Amino acid sequence: MLKSMGAAKQAVHTGVGDGTDVSVAGAVSSGRSSGLKILPIVEAVVLVAALLAPLVLQDYLTVFATRVIILALFALSFDLVWGYAGIMSFGQALFFGSAGYGVALLARDLDITNIFLVLPAGTLIGLAFALLLGGFLLLGRHPSSVIFVSLGTLTGSYAADRLARGWYYLGGQNGIPSIAPMSLGTYEFTEGPAFYYLVLGILVLVYLLCRFLVRSQFGLALAGLRENEQRIAFFGYKAQHLKAIIFTIGGAVAGLAGSLYAFHEGFVWPNMVGVVVSTQVVLYVLFGGSGTLIGAVIGAVIVEGVSFWLSDNYRDIWPIILGVLLLVVILFRPLGLISFMLGERERVGSFGAKAKENP
Amino acid sequence: MANAFVAAFEILSFGAIIVLIVLGLGIIASMMGIFNFAQGEFVLLGAYITYLAYAKGMPIWAGMVAAPFVVGALGFALEALIIRRFYAAPIVAMLGTYALGLIIRESVRGLIGGFYLTVPEPIGGSIDIGAMHISAWRFTIIVITLLVMAGCYLLLSRTSFGLRMRATLENPSLARASGISTPLMYGATFAFGSALAGLAGALIVPVFSLYADLGLRFLIQGFVAVMVGGVGSFIGPVAGAGVIGTLSAALPWVMAPVVADVLVFVLAIVFIKFRPQGLIAGKGV
Asked: Which regions span the lipid bilayer (chain A) (predicted)?
């Protein structure tokens, strides 16, 4: 309670805007929030902006926006694992990239590009890899340390990168180029508004599913896991199983994003499974705000957008700026940009069907 | 016979390089509980300083001697300004040091461009033993690694500085009560670990040449080595580095390099899973 009061005060001081400040403070003081909620507004604004984007953007920007939406989906998968369950997965690209490679091989060797086959296939590949790696790292007689899990996932991703680079069947350094476009009957999804709305539709669907998941009793147990794993274990939850489940779900979402990415870009290459992309997704989520789903989406959009915008003139110094910004966020805004708008109480939110308050 | 000897020398010299790189990483991880993602970039900085000395026409030796001091000083400053805030949260420390590493790496990339810059070996030529030739510089690296290892061991186990360092590690509050300045000890430990990375970078740059991702290449191998060896002691990470370095260099002689590369990591992770305390458990030197 005190903590949320502090957060509300902070919101007042940072000056988000008078109306919103009052509503946060009101929500805190009146217990059950009858006032205005900020999170749904943010979500609605983002959705409307995303829906309108192709109408105002030029063609090449729509292609870029599609890529950003796919990366936002990928960011969502990492946010589930880190933001909600507190598992540091430094190897999320392993699931993203292996699904990308998987669907690329399907298209290249078996001529399978039907959307109803390749997307489930990619999701399953991500799920299977996450189940294997997560099961190995997280389950077992003794609980694994956070350090072991984060370094284990990092190592897995690095090893996959090396394997992809050296394996001739996977195209080696060059990856697999010119993947056939995804198809639905005779219609082919090529870059453009149709692909954009397809991806956006998938993102919204997955977002809603995730939202349901993290607001359920399962989500409550996950939040407890994140805050104090031992206490959750003492309550009788099987903490390791919970972790393995959410890790696997995260892997499946990453796999879905990876297969979309492969078909959108038309090629896959070793970086996609490697450390570079793994750390990129960490950046998105930390920037936007881990522990809120919309924070992950906003983070992906902002990081990619600014990077695209700066890449013409400041290509060389952009990574340095990114590093400095990341450091500043970690030091001074550990909850990310979304915490400028969102109070602590709303970020933690409520759980279960009746949305009971959990102070 | 000659072939086997050359192979053994290659394996030994690569093992020595990994040990040299892991020394600093291991000291910081064991003594402070921080997995420093910027360690690879400290290695890179050491290499860059050596290259700068060479490019400015100074003797390469001068650059190699200066590198550990400059990088150590930088490490001390970074610890006081930034790393100090991360002690309570190991994961946040990883992310924070990753950001630091990113800044250093991209700055160096900006300075050198996307090139591979070569630095000649200060001791060129080869040592001939019968019909076999081994690189004199690689041999020197092995000797220096052994000296540095012995020096670190003596520093930690025999001097009062080492005693205070270990006291701070094992029981910070008691150390403070005994009049040891723990913040200073943490700063000194971090600076020492960074200086070792700088030295490693300076010594290996003639072998691998200078490029922006030089440090990154060794970082994950280093982490795996520290975990295999066991966090908490000085000797653990060194032993782990020996094992990982030897395996990485030896396996490609008996199987396809791609498979060997991945196999080392898989074996290491499986080993750590079933023996989380590592090869050498326990705290101390």
From this structure: 38-57, 64-84, 90-107, 114-139, 194-214, 244-263, 317-342
Residue of A147, A166, A322 with shortest CB distance to B102:
A322
Contact B98 A146 (CB under 8 A): no
| B2-274 placed in CATH 3.40.1000 | no
Please report the DSSP string for A228-253 in residue order.
-HHHHHHTT--HHHHHHHHHHHHHHH
Element of type H or E holding A303: helix A293-310
* Residue A152 with chain B: CB contacts under 8 Å: 269, 272-273
Angle at B242 between CA B156 and CA B24, to 5 degrees: 40
Residue contact B276–A150, C-beta within 8 A: no
Confidence of residue B285 (pLDDT cuts 50, 70, 90): low
Q: Which pLDDT value is given to residue B42?
A: 93
Joined tokens for residue B44: 């890179």
pTM of the full structure: 0.83
Q: Which residues of B touch A323 (CB under 8 A)?
A: 99-100, 102-103, 106
| pLDDT, tens only, B46-66 | 999 998 888 888 888 888 888
- Does residue A68 lie within any of the structural domains? yes
A chain contacts of residue B257, beta-carbon cutoff 8 Å: 166
Contact B47, B210 (CB under 8 A): yes
When divided into structural domains, chain A yields a total of: 1
